[in-house]
Amino acid sequence: MADNILNKAFSAITDKVEKALSQQGFTQQNVASDDGEKVAMFTNGSLIYSVIYTENDNHLVLRSCGMTEEGPDNDWKNMATWLFDPESDTMADAESIGKDFAEMLGDKTQLKKVQQAKKKKKKKKKNKDEGSADPEFLAKRFVTFFPELKDEIKEEADNYYPFRGVTFTKEHIVPKVKEYMKNPNKKQVEKLAQLLNRQYNNGDADTRSIVNIVIINSLTDEQYDKLYEHFDEDMQKYSKGGRKYIGKTVKPEKVKKKKTSRFAETLQNQQ
């Protein structure tokens, strides 16, 4: 009898929590409960809330923690604790607990916490994506300018490992950038300068060399001067220094391994 009441009470409580959180973009996760406890979890990818009931002390706890790519960071913070004894408490008590949890989750402070967690994760992802931006990542950023690069990048990645940053940039990106800079308006110049600023500052050593020596040095002085006005301080400094390398050779990468599809291998073997 007590177990039946407990199951109904826990469901009633978590239903109210789910209703409050679903409006904020949270979804309930499938979590196996251990013996002696019941657990419900809800996450939006950046923050997680948990309702846990422990039978040995009849405690119902609403808690929260951050999310990582591997799952909860387990830095749990208790938000509210209630006692619920299935031997003496009623469904009315469970409804009251659920209402309290839901109201707490809808509080302005909690809503602000959710937004901050989202921003923090988004910033962390951005830093991860761009903080060590390699030449392939750089090439993909140019797809917004030149959509046809998408297929060209795929073909390069399918056939060569590692991605031949210098070679690919010279053959596919530089001609497009030079054409783009023939008669651009101010907004177009600013957009390209911002991309080069961002990728130079967040790129690895290879990416920085490609931005500075391969792309920027392919431009005429007139084209470079237009971009220079919109470069940040670092980009102005290093691009200016890089102009002295115009005409000097940047050696293409040595290809360590050429990828061949199984279909292609079969054809070669048949020939």
List keywords for this structure.
271 residues; 2 domains; six-stranded antiparallel sheet; two-stranded antiparallel sheet; alpha+beta; 15% strand; Protein Transport Mog1p, Chain A
Low-confidence stretches: 257-271
Proportion of helical residues = 40-55%
Number of domains: 2
Cα-to-Cα separation, first versus last residue? 77 Å
Query: Could you say which overall geometry the principal axes of the C-alpha atoms support?
Result: elongated
Order of helices and strands: HEEEEEEHHHHEHHHHHEH
Q: How confident is the prediction overall: mean pLDDT?
A: 84
Tell me the number of strands. Answer: 8
Number of helical runs?
A: 11
**What fraction of the residues are assigned to beta strands by DSSP?**
15-25%
Rg calc: 28 Å
Give a short account of the largest sheet: 6 strands, antiparallel
Judged by helices, strands and strand pairing, the structural class is alpha+beta
Describe this structure in words.
This protein has 271 residues and is of the alpha+beta class. The strands form 2 sheets. Strands 1, 2, 3, 4, 5 and 6 form a 6-stranded antiparallel β-sheet that branches. Strands 7-8 form a two-stranded antiparallel ribbon. The chain has helices at residues 2-22, 91-105, 108-131, 135-141, 149-159, 165-180, 186-202, 205-215, 221-228, 233-242, 262-270, and strands at 27-29, 37-43, 47-54, 59-68, 71-72, 77-83, 160-161, 257-258. Helices cover 55% and strands 15% of the residues. A hairpin with a 4-residue loop joins strand 3 (47-54) and strand 4 (59-68). Mean pLDDT is 84; it is low at 257-271. Helix 1 (2-22) runs parallel beside helix 2, helix 6 packs across helix 8 and helix 7 (186-202) packs antiparallel against helix 8 (205-215). The protein is built from 11 helices and 8 strands. The longest helix is centred in the middle third of the chain and has 24 residues, at 108-131. The relative contact order is 0.08. It has 2 domains: 2-126, Protein Transport Mog1p, Chain A (3-Layer(aba) Sandwich); 132-261, no CATH class.
